[in-house]
Amino acid sequence: MLKYRKLYPVLNHAIYANTAAFGLLGEELLEWRQNHDLDYLVGGSTMKIDSMGLISEARVLIGDFFNCKKDLVALIPNFSLGLNLLLEGLNSKEHILLLENDYPSVNWPFESRGFQISYAKIDDKLEENIKEQVKTNSVTVLALSLVQWINGIRVDLDFLKSLKEEFPQLLIIADGTQFCGAFDIDFENSGIDVLGASGYKWLLAGTGNGFMLFRDSAKGRFSIKATGFNSANAVILAKETIPFNKHFEPGHLDSLNFGSLKLAMELLNDIGMKEITVYNEHLSTRALKGFRELGLLNSDVLHRPRHSTIFNIKGDDRLFNHLIEANVVCSRRGNGIRLSFHYYNTVEDIDFILEIIRKKI
Predict the structure, then answer these.
(1) Predicted confidence band of residue 352 (pLDDT cuts 50, 70, 90)
(2) Fewer CB within 10 Å of terminal CB in the chain, N or C?
(3) How many whole angstroms separate alpha carbon 73 and alpha carbon 280?
(4) Mind listing the domains of the chain with CATH numbers?
């Protein structure tokens, strides 16, 4: 992975432990974006019309990347907008299971629409908590983040698959924004019915792009009303035959943003998501061990068999400011300090952070 670090100039002057907030912009993507807009500058509408092929190419790549049929891939500006469009078509009588203190853009859209809602606690027994709620509360829809934004707790994908097998009528909607690009996932065989993500975090694609993936069997649970000329691919006579995924694309899609997503995912493909997954799990293990030894982690994280690369360590403003002064880019989240690592980080980065903290506590 070391050879890819040169793509990210931020790493020349800082330890970047903040991908959970924003992924880095790489030099190759910057160059492509500059050339794209230069072509637009001199080509005008001709260039923009010609570049629409990027949209189709991005859709195909996303489908291949996550193992989803391309006509079940919806391109969206971000996960939050996609989820809100989706929920406008969900029956109000559905009983929703959410996670306590999950990402607001997951929970709020359900809570604002008057659904009957139950909650599962996020702790070391997360999967058991979910299953108990599904069994006892007649839950029909489970919506959750695959990785929790504050503490990095990572739901067991094998659990979701087995839960779907045991409760086949349960609709599972997942936010993969803090997961996709950091770890590999086979959507078609995951048990998840709807998977959405924004591209600006672990996919490293910048803002303004994202996607939603659908299992064919899930389409019947929704009656999507959103529509526009782009839904029909600018064909007047196609108004009554709009495919399900195109209801999420009522207006023009930006070739710059979705071309950026395409290029960023091509880089991940070149490296290999299985390789990235193994590497990131190695970083996770190293960080978990170090933070555990310093007594900086909540017991909910310590007692789980597998974790993500997002950690919320015990620390106040004094420690946070000390890390910032040492050129460690991180975030204050909840009552602690959130550090997050991606494939462009190294174990040396983690060891450096541990040494800084060790000297300060």
Answers:
(1) very high
(2) C
(3) 26
(4) 2-26+272-360 (3.90.1150.10), 34-270 (3.40.640.10)
